[in-house]
């Protein structure tokens, strides 16, 4: 099985990591095959642990690095140098973009390979080292000429904000002293970070809650590491954060230090490892850390030494190095060099996602628009920029890795190049991108939940799309079909592959002349780790794959062994022919099947030719079926993975829905409260108004009554006897009036009786009565006068406010009941008030 070269996409290398401490009990499922003639190994075999029925798979890579491979072996073996030379374009013209990426299961050593450990540099630092040393005499210094910086800015096509390193670093490091320290390198291969002792309670940080996800378990473990990483004589007093307590148990720390600690635990990125709650309701990611100034690392690792290695550069050119960093988190791009901004609404620190798009200056090619970029003059500046970006990158502790990358990290080194001495010349740009992909993981093993589980879902999803792209490319090597890599399915694959192919619309532009990027993929694997996750990654990343069927019944093996030669041709035809309709792209490099090498031989009595043929057919059929079963198993494994990532996605969606629901509930509640308060206010106002009106109304009534009965009412402020006196007077008055009324009635009835007893002619003597002044000679007049008299005497006992009904005797003598209102002047106010009531 020859490893085919994946055109345009990647050279694929495999690096095996040494077993983690304490994992000695695990069974090794991966073995490296010896290569002929002592060449570097290129093949590995996966033996499913504890399951002899599963197929044995064999994978081919450009090269396999075993557990004892050093960082230098990787640097040299993966051919990073040609990548650097590609971007420098030593023979003139524009450079070729380079991409160096790592892929692997979580905890398999991707970050270790890319960023190194506390004593060993990673490929990133080594690439930067060789790059800066190679252009040492050709690099421009923007500090000497502001025009240089301006020309670099104007040539940038990505709408970026470009700073010189001193300006940028001044804003990031509290103790940065700019040019005086630039270029200096500390001697000790350790990173000493006193500030790591801080456990800052950052503003905007979520408080611990019962639902919180413990991202990293031991805060003070980092302190232990720092303290031990620092020689005792260099250990200063711990830096006390104004906001947080200090890990104070320094003397107890030494014996509990885990010897295997990742470089990242010593970087400021590790300081982000805090207890973080579920993602905030208004976003699908947890808040980034609050911006704060970092402590400048006092020492950086120097090993391995590559001072003898140099890349060729173009002597007639001048170069500028511009660095940017971003991460792809939940399928969105976030700048790692732009500090998060505090939202005026939520009071949280957030980063704005950036777009991957075509711009005015880059119509044919998509670029990440709006990044902050830093012009670096030397490796120290570049490493400090890298450190600042790593500080912002999201990492978390999971069950699989105590410092697990939760995003795909992109570190981009743009090499700007133009002819020397041409101050107005155009800067050509080629980019070396170094990508530390987040690791695929199984929720069960990683013991992730909440936000971290949701992240895992997104990580697995993007890696699945990456796998599809790699697979398509792999298939393209073995078929004549057009090479359609579905790289636009997610941000990660778009960013990784959009430079791999010339853009169709760019056929006439300058970009069409650019060579497709050169790419190196380093797949990392733990031979003692998670078999299923590892085999899945290997399946889609390997350059070729071969599957051997599991051991078949010994009788068949014997027959196969006997009839090996004759069967071979049949077998190929039969198995290939029968498998083709069902075979998946993954199996495109399959051999039909392997003959089991370790089968037991048995002796059988001679059989007839027909029986032999039947047995052969049966054996072939069995082998074919076994092959199909194997395919189905592989398919099942893939589907299970896809289901798991879909489930993780679903869970993250459910989380979001729950958060949204909570948010909506809270909004409704707040709205309701507001309205209620408003209504209550209104009600109070109208009540007090009513009360006032009522009081006014009764005041007026009393006033009217007072006026009506001719009594002066004393105000409520007067002495308590005021009311009683008033009532007494009123009662006396009424009694008097009633008595008078009664008397008059009696008189009237006497007079009536008298009158009725007389003849009309004798009624005159009534005129003689002096107390009836209105009586005249005419009977009608007399009656009218009497009526008037009666009317004037009739007083209603019902009180002063009532209307008085008066009997009026008409001139015809028939009394008609009429309602008469008292003069308007007197009753106006009362009527109006009555209506109001
Ligand atoms: N080749 C190696 N030699 C020594 N230690 C290693 C090697 N590879 C990995 N490790 C150690 O294993 C641990 C996990 O490695 P690392 O963080 O690089 O994994 P990763 O693949 O980046 O994980 P994730 O995807 O979760 O970020 C670290 O402590 C690291 O130091």
Radius of gyration: 49 Å
Distance between the termini: 104 Å
Principal-axis shape:
elongated
> Structurally, how many domains make up the residues?
3
Major beta-sheet overview: 12 strands, mixed
Bound molecules: adenosine-5'-triphosphate
Helix/strand-derived category reads: alpha+beta
| Unreliable stretches | 178-290, 506-512, 565-605, 768-780, 795-837
Short description:
By secondary structure, the protein is of the alpha+beta class. The chain is built from 19 helices and 24 strands.
Structure description:
The protein is 39% helix and 14% strand. By secondary structure, the chain is α+β, with helices and mostly antiparallel strands. The protein folds into 3 domains: 80-459 and 488-521, no CATH class; 549-695; 721-836, no CATH class. A hairpin with a 7-residue loop joins strand 17 and strand 18. The longest helix is centred in the C-terminal third of the chain and has 101 residues, at 609-709. The structure holds adenosine-5'-triphosphate. Adenosine-5'-triphosphate is lined by residues 17-18, 104, 106-112, 117, 260-262, 401, 403-405, 438-439, 524.
């Amino acid at each position: 099985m020859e490893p085919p070269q994946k055109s345009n996409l990647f050279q694929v290398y495999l690096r095996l990591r040494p077993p983690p401490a304490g994992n000695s009990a695990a069974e090794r499922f991966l073995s490296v095959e010896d290569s002929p003639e002592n060449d570097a190994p290129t093949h590995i075999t996966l033996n499913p642990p504890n399951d002899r029925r599963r197929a044995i798979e064999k994978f081919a890579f450009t090269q396999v690095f075993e557990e004892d491979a050093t960082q230098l072996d990787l640097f040299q073996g993966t051919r990073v140098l040609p990548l650097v030379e590609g971007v420098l374009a030593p023979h003139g013209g524009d450079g070729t973009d380079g991409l160096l990426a790592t892929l692997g299961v979580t905890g398999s050593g991707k970050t270790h390979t890319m960023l190194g450990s506390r004593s060993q540099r990673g490929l990133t630092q080594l690439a930067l080292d060789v790059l800066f040393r190679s252009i040492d005499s050709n690099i421009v210094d923007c500090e000497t000429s502001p025009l240089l910086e301006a020309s670099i800015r104007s040539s940038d096509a990505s709408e970026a904000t470009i700073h010189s390193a001193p300006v940028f670093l001044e804003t990031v490091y509290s103790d940065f002293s700019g040019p005086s320290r630039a270029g200096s390198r500390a001697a000790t291969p350790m990173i000493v970070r006193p500030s790591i002792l801080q456990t800052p309670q950052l503003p905007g940080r979520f408080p611990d809650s019962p639902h919180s996800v413990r991202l990293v378990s031991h805060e003070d473990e980092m302190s232990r590491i720092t303290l031990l990483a620092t020689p005792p004589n260099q250990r200063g007093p711990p830096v006390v954060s104004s906001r947080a307590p200090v890990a104070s148990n320094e003397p107890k720390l030494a014996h509990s230090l885990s010897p295997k600690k990742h470089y990242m635990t010593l970087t400021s990125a590790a300081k982000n490892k805090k207890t973080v709650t579920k993602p905030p309701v208004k976003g699908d990611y947890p808040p980034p850390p609050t911006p704060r100034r970092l402590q400048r690392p006092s020492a950086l690792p120097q090993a391995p030494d590559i001072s003898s290695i140099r890349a060729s550069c173009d002597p007639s050119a001048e170069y500028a190095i511009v660095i940017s960093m971003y991460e792809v988190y939940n399928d969105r791009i976030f700048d790692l060099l732009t500090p998060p901004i505090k939202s005026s609404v939520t009071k949280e620190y957030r980063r704005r996602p950036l777009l991957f798009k075509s711009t005015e200056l880059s119509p044919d090619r998509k670029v990440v628009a709006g990044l902050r970029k830093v012009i670096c003059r030397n490796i120290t500046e570049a490493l400090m920029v890298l450190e600042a970006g790593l500080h912002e990158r999201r990492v978390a502790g999971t069950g699989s890795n105590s410092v697990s990358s939760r995003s795909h990290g992109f570190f981009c080194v743009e090499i700007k190049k133009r002819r020397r001495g041409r101050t107005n010349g155009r800067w050509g740009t080629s980019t070396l991108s170094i990508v530390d992909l987040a690791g695929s993981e199984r929720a069960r093993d990683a013991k992730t939940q909440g936000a971290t589980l949701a992240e895992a879902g997104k990580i697995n999803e993007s890696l699945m799309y990456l796998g599809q792209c790699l697979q398509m490319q792999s298939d393209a090597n073995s078929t004549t079909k057009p090479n359609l890599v579905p790289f636009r399915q997610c941000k990660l694959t778009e960013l990784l592959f959009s430079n791999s192919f010339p853009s169709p619309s760019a056929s006439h532009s300058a970009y069409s002349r650019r060579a497709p990027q050169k790419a190196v993929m380093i797949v990392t694997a733990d031979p003692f780790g998670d078999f299923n996750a590892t085999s899945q990654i290997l399946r889609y990343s390997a350059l070729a794959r071969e599957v051997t069927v599991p051991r078949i019944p010994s009788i068949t093996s014997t027959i196969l062994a006997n009839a090996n030669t004759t069967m071979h041709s049949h077998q190929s035809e039969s198995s290939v022919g029968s498998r083709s309709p069902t075979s998946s792209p993954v199996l495109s490099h399959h051999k039909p099947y392997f003959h089991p090498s370790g089968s037991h031989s048995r002796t059988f009595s001679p059989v007839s030719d027909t029986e032999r043929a039947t047995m052969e057919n049966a054996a072939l059929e069995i082998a074919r079926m076994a092959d199909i079963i194997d395919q189905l198993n592989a398919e099942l494994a893939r589907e299970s993975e896809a289901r798991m990532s879909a489930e993780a996605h679903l869970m993250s969606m459910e989380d979001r829905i729950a958060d949204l629901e909570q948010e909506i509930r809270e909004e409704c509640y707040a709205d309701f409260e507001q309205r209620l308060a408003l209504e209550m206010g209104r009600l109070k106002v109208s009540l007090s108004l009513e009360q006032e009106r009522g009081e006014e109304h009764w005041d007026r009534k009393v006033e009217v009554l007072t006026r009506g009965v001719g009594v002066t009412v004393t105000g409520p402020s007067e002495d308590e006897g005021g009311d009683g006196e008033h009532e007494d007077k009123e009662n006396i008055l009424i009694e008097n009036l009633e008595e008078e009324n009664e008397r008059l009635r009696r008189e009237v009835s006497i007079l009536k009786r008298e009158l009725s007893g007389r003849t009309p002619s004798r009624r005159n003597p009534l005129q003689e009565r002096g107390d009836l002044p209105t009586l005249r000679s005419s009977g009608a007049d007399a009656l009218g006068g009497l009526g008037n008299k009666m009317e004037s005497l009739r007083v209603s006992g019902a009180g002063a406010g009532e209307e008085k009904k008066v009997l009026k005797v008409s001139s015809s003598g028939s009394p008609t009941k009429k309602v008469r209102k008292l003069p308007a002047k007197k009753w106006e106010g009362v009527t109006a008030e009555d209506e109001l009531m």
